[in-house]
Amino acid sequence: MEVRKVFTSATRSVSSTSLRERLSSLSTITATPLKPVANLHAHIEFVPAKIPRKRRLQTLAVAIWSTTIVWSVTLFLFLCSFPPLWPLLAAYMIWALYIDKSPEHGGRLSPWFRSMGFWRYFADYYPASFLKTCELPPDRPYVFGYHPHGIIGRGAICTFATESTGFSAAFPGIIPHLLTLASNFRIPLYRDIILAMGICSVSKQSCSNILKKGPGNSITIVVGGAAESLSAHPGTADLTLRKRLGFIKIAIQHGADLVPVFSFGENDIFQQMPNEKGTTLYTLQKKFQNVFGFTLPLFHGRGLLNYNLGLMPYRKRIVAVIGRPIHVVQCDKPSLEEIMHVQQQYIDELMWIWNTYKDEFARTRTRELNIIE
Questions:
Q1: Interaxial angle between packed helices 53-66 and 117-124, expressed in degrees from 0 to 180 and rounded to the nearest 10
Q2: How far is CA 160 from the centre of its chain?
Q3: What distance lies between CA 7 and its chain's CA centroid?
Q4: How far apart, in whole angstroms, are the C-alpha atoms of residue 94 and residue 124?
Q5: Which is it for strands 238-239 and 370-371: parallel, antiparallel or unpaired?
Q6: Backbone angles phi, psi at 161, to 5 degrees
Q7: Omega into 87 within 30° of 0, i.e. cis?
Q8: Contact 121, 61 (CB under 8 A)
Q9: What is the pLDDT along the chain (373 residues), one digit of tens a residue?
Q10: How far apart are alpha carbons 65 and 50 in whole angstroms?
Q11: What is the pTM for the complete model shown?
Q12: 96, 129, 288, 366 — which has fewest CB within 10 A?
């Protein structure tokens, strides 16, 4: 009995001591009030209340364009909720999917739409501009190769799909057509917007139809495509180019001069999750690309009301340097040797652009331009 009493007393003593310690630690925690809003402020840099009206309009323009696909589909579905509109909407979809061939025949470019003030705010947000290195006479067709792809390719939109940077004024007589995936023209309402911007399908037939229209017509191909978007990290310039021979072959077949374009800052407007080759994320992204024809980079930028969390691009300067044209000799069936020879000239000109302007427009680079594929 005495031993049991001693054991019980010791147990009670230990329990009371641990209880006091726990109570004291709890009082320490409760003494410091929780401040979730303050903690949020510590990690997210919110936009000041007083911002110039012009900058707000620039942010609004980018936000509207960033969500164009979402709100155009939402608007279409909203219209579908009205039964009296069903015959009209059904006729529109039949026309868009099966009858309208504009995406393959030069689009429905609208100079008025491309010159809207909206696009000026859109370009000034970054700001985006281009640098002209030489004259491009409108007495021949052109194939512009745009590098790098970036996450979305905002510089290509500003330069070749709108007049926000003054392309037509700098190159009079040249009609630009930025090319994109044919799947974008299956999205209701959105397809009509990009057609008015002069954007067309990147299919081989579409390229041929535009270049066949003769002197002054041009196409812009973002050469790296979806594969290159996975390499779009700030401070880098990793290009997918070695195996991309199709655009060179098309240029030779139509006697169109090749013009390399390097867009400094294109990779800096978004942050992408680490996805080096060999990682699980990279493997999944490549499998997704093989199945659907495009990929989904996991990226982030800023938000409407903060500077470091969201899906809007950062305000980073974009300068598209339009290089010197590479004249090609027209040939209906160019050999592989001829194509490779022109490709080497193209790469040399692209490297000239990089080496000439990197210290001016890529001061924060972490490594040099690298052709990875």
A1: 100
A2: 14
A3: 72
A4: 38
A5: parallel
A6: -110, -5
A7: no
A8: yes
A9: 444 444 444 444 445 566 566 656 555 544 445 454 455 455 788 888 888 999 999 999 999 999 999 999 999 999 999 999 999 999 999 999 999 999 999 999 999 999 999 999 999 999 999 999 999 999 999 999 999 999 989 999 999 999 999 999 999 999 999 999 999 999 999 999 999 999 999 999 999 999 999 999 999 999 998 889 889 999 999 999 999 999 999 999 999 999 999 999 999 999 998 888 888 888 888 888 888 777 778 898 999 888 888 999 999 999 999 999 999 999 999 999 999 999 999 999 999 999 999 999 999 999 999 998 8
A10: 24
A11: 0.86
A12: 366
Strand 128-132 and strand 238-239: the pairing is unpaired
Radius of gyration of the chain (CA): 28
Q: Would you state the structure tokens that stand for residue 307, as one six-digit string?
A: 């500077």
Beta strands in 265-336 (DSSP E): 271-272, 299-300, 318-322
Helix (H) or strand (E) holding 7: helix 2-31
* Alpha carbons within 13 A on the beta-carbon side of 289: 16
CB 122 within 8 A of CB 59: no
* Contact by Cβ (8 Å): 131, 319: yes
Contacts of 371 (CB under 8 A, 6+ apart): 238, 239, 240, 241, 242, 347
Q: What are phi and psi of 181, to 5 degrees?
A: -65, 145
Write the DSSP assignment of 79-97 as a string of letters. Answer: HHT-GGGHHHHHHHHHIII
Both tokens of 246, joined, read 């199709």
Chain Cα centroid distance, residue 223: 13
The dihedral built from the CA positions of residue 167, 193, 71 and 272, taken in this order, carries a sign that is: negative
> What are 237's two structure tokens?
């310039």
CB-CB contact of 140 with 113 (8 Å): no
Residue found by looking up tokens 């374009």 in the block: 261
